[in-house]
Amino acid sequence: MTTKPAAAAARATVYGYPRQGQNRELKKAIEGYWKGRVTADALRATAADLRASNWRQLADAGIDEVPTGDFSFYDHVLDTTVMVGAIPGRHRDAVEADALDGYFAMARGTQDVAPLEMTKWFDTNYHYLVPELGPDTVFTADSSQQVAELREALALGHTARPVLVGPVTYLLLAKPAPGVPADFEPLTLLDRLLPVYAEVLADLRAAGAEWVQLDEPALVQDRTPAELIAAERAYRDLGALTDRSKLLVASYFDRLGNALPVLAKAPVEGLAVDFTESAAANLDDLAAVGGLPGKRLVAGVVNGRNIWINDLAASLSRLGTLLGLADRVDVSASCSLLHVPLDTGAERDIEPQVLRWLAFARQKTAEIVTLARGLTQGTDTIGAQLAANRSDLFSRANSPITRDPAVRARTAAVSEADARRSLPYAERTAAQRARLGLPLLPTTTIGSFPQTAGVRTARADLRAGRIDTAGYEERIKAEIQEVISFQEKAGLDVLVHGEAERNDMVQYFAEQLTGCLATQHGWVQSYGTRYVRPPILAGDISRPEPMTVRWTRYAQSLTDRPVKGMLTGPVTMLAWSFVRDDQPRAQTARQVALALRDEVGDLEAAGTSVIQVDEPALRETLPLRAADRPEYLGWATEAFRLSTGGVRPDTQIHTHMCYAEFGDIVQAIDDLDADVISLEAARSHMQVARELASHGYPREAGPGVYDIHSPRVPGAEEAADLLRSGLKAIPAERLWVNPDCGLKTRGWTETRASLENLVTAARAVRGEL
Ligand code: GLN
Ligand code: ZN
Q1: Annotated binding residue at 658?
Q2: Which of 184, 271, 268 minimizes the C-alpha distance to 219?
Q3: The Cobalamin-independent methionine synthase MetE C-terminal/archaeal domain covers which part of the protein (predicted)?
Q4: CA separation for the pair 302, 612 (Å, rounded)
Q5: Ligand 1 midpoint to CA 158 (Å)
Q6: Which strand (E) or helix (H) includes residue 517?
Q7: Among 738, 746, 700, which residue's Cα sits nearest to residue 722?
């Protein structure tokens, strides 16, 4: 295909870039500052260096317009809270005393003051700090950080575009402040917030911004008519300002739907729209509203949140279609590159041929530049890049890694019956009770026990070759012995081996499955200074040999009580990895499920009577739009059933989830057909138990009675009270007693005390039945 040169030169741009630096310099500087080892000035200097080097990298690669304001010491939503002066009352003194320390106090809390709540940024694994607003909130503009960063970039000679969280999204992401009625809607504060944005826009214009980008990803979610009217008003008012830069309103992560006509008609100069697969409907929808005559369209054609190379020819053809729909078309990634690692060039352990299938932030930047050039100057000028891209795509499509005939045949042969247990739940319980012989209100834990420094050192020693495998395994066995003997002494009923051998609940399995890749430097920000290295589900997935059986068997050999087998479920494996984009996710989930099914079968054959398959991410990857949810929940629950459906009726399947809100997926939880579920509940005071009950959830459940996110030791009486309130919702025959989640981040002292209290509480309440 050849594209004719476009009339206006297409610009290459991005909305944001990874913040951490090549060697996670930012993490080190910030954590050093917290520990008092790095001064505030040194921290600021490191930050300025990182920004400068990011802009240089982008400009050298050919990016025409670099973003500013995408950088952050912790989180860009928290930065927006500072920009609009919405500092919670409890943090005001700290912020006034010292802006930087006050900022970190809002992010992390202090001994006396709780931090802002943290939650997921849309359906990504990035967490933002939730603004707390109320009827008394007074907004005041503080554009200093935005202005300073813009000036920095301009002084370095860059064409720069400040990127701000838009006012509608900011309010829609907020929650009522503590003490404010739960039905308070932050969006009602829009009229108070807009003048503050007007001030910031005036300051940015004065500082030299030609364009300012306002991010409104909240508009890709289902929105009420009132919310759309608010969005319309926001951009009518901001558009009407005279003292402002040109406005680019950006959306990403899904299709705009009803919000598209609202934004298309708004008196702003440009829109940035996601045109990747998951938002493909945007193209037709944009054509249907007559395009964006007279406006700039920034086309997000390179996936900003996955790590696969772009299909350049397909993107060029999409861009060609878009040329007819706007005054000027520029090229970008679909969203900020914050969600992908920095550079594939740092990876040494991935085969060179496979590495060529991958594009991290730096490679995506090059793709964007290539596409902009092809669009402007014609495809002939990027012939070499197109040919290389074609050959990389071909190699990926035809590799034995992505096409394993055995896996494909097995996946294709899956039948409805494979995903169904041989007896329905109601008929399985008697067999399980007889086999397990547990008391009423049985006690258990979620899987992991404290990951001591000793275990982590042993793992590092093994990696560095300081100890051999046998030495490492001795360490793990010693750990398992300790965990088992503690649980026996404490009087727990269903034991666990403690997961000492696992670095991470997803990575541990990914490392053992064929078709998965691990990176050495593929760090992605999860929140603040916490970075994760998600595995890459690159090919057809299979399990060459058992992954957990020997540890569970060893643990079981030490005790007469049942030891739970412990696996990570297929949905969570996908949610916390980069997943291949060349086949539906459902297909990949099925492959992972079959690999887990083999593991479940082997555990059962080794005598394991209780097997837990964790799915903490089931709720979290729920699609943003309600219309897409049934399909997702359909394949997600099928994958879980496929991994667990092959066991005998008297083998008890547990699952675990840790998210506060389950109300909207109770049906899906039931569809998992697990026998027992443990859930996070201690903070919400058994709210979860009431929710399950009100939806008629018929199975056994263990709403957590011990909040493991805090070092606080709950007293036995407190846990007993929670149990009593749990009993009001769930009958004693179906109520389990357990903590909220795994204990790996806790210390041994508090773990011991808390679990002893938990057993005491269970015994006390049993006595009352
Ligand atoms: N079994 C895991 C553990 O105990 C579950 C972790 C989780 O739910 N995130 O650590
Ligand atoms: Zn959990």
Answers
A1: yes
A2: 271
A3: 441-763
A4: 38
A5: 46
A6: strand 514-517
A7: 738
Summarize pLDDT for 180-190 with one digit per residue, the tens: 999 999 999 99
pLDDT in tens, 364-412: 999 999 999 999 999 999 999 999 999 999 999 999 999 999 999 999 9
pTM of the full structure: 0.95
Ligand 1 centroid to Cα of residue 614, in Å, is 7
**Atom 6, ligand 1: residue with shortest CA distance:** 742
**Was 24 annotated as part of a binding site?**
yes
Question: Other C-beta atoms within 10 Å of 707: how many?
Answer: 18
CB 613 within 8 Å of CB 657: no
Q: Is 335 annotated as ligand-binding?
A: no
What share of residues in the chain are helix, strand, coil (percent, to 5)? 45, 15, 40
Q: List the residue whose alpha carbon is closest to atom 9 of ligand 1.
A: 616
* Ligand 1 midpoint to CA 741 (Å): 6
The pLDDT of residue 659 is 72
Alpha-carbon span 129 to 77, nearest angstrom: 6
Q: What is the pLDDT of residues 538-596, one digit of tens each?
A: 999 999 999 999 999 999 999 999 999 999 999 999 999 999 999 999 999 999 999 99
Here the tokens at position 573 are 């494996």
Residue with the smallest CA separation from ligand 1 atom 4 is 742
Pocket test for ligand 1, best of 568, 741, 744, 755 (most atoms within 8 A of CB): 741
Decide if pLDDT at 3 tops 70. no
Amino acid letter, residue 284? D
**Angle, in degrees to the nearest 10, between helices 469-490 and 549-557:** 50
Nearest to 481 by CA among 416, 547, 554: 554
7 band by pLDDT with thresholds 50, 70 and 90: low
Q: Are 282 and 342 in contact (CB under 8 A)?
A: no
Identify which of 702, 699, 608 has the alpha carbon closest to the alpha carbon of residue 651: 608
In angstroms, what is the C-alpha Rg of the chain?
27
Angstrom distance (rounded) from CA 18 to CA 69: 12
Give residue 1's pLDDT: 44
The CB of 534 under 6 Å from ligand 1? The reply is: no
User: What is the H or E stretch that residue 148 is in?
Assistant: helix 144-155
Nearest ligand for residue 502 CA = 1
Considering only CA atoms, which of 341, 308, 309 is closest in space to residue 534? 341
Q: Is 497 a catalytic residue?
A: no
Do 396 and 536 contact (CB within 8 A), yes or no?
Answer: no
Residues 6+ apart with CB under 8 A from 466: none
Q: Assign 128 to helix, strand or coil.
A: strand
| Kind plus residue range of the DSSP H or E element containing 602 | helix 585-605
- Picking from 559, 320, 539, the residue whose alpha carbon sits closest to that of residue 411 is 539
pLDDT digits (tens, 9 = 90+) for 8-53: 799 999 999 999 999 999 999 999 999 999 999 999 999 999 999 9
Residue 491 among known ligand-binding residues: no
Q: What is the pLDDT of residues 117-165, one digit of tens each?
A: 998 999 999 999 999 999 999 999 999 999 999 999 999 999 999 999 9
CA quadruple 490, 491, 492, 493: dihedral, nearest 10:
170
In the DSSP assignment, the letter for residue 346 is G
Size of the chain in residues? 769
What pLDDT is attached to residue 2?
Answer: 46
pLDDT score of 5: 47
> Measured in angstroms, how far is the CA atom of residue 407 from the centroid of ligand 1?
28
Give, in order, the Cα–Cα distances in Å from 325 to each of 260, 294, 694: 14, 10, 50
39: how many CB neighbours lie within 10 A of its CB?
Answer: 11
**CA 203, 338, 621, 685 torsion-angle sign:** negative
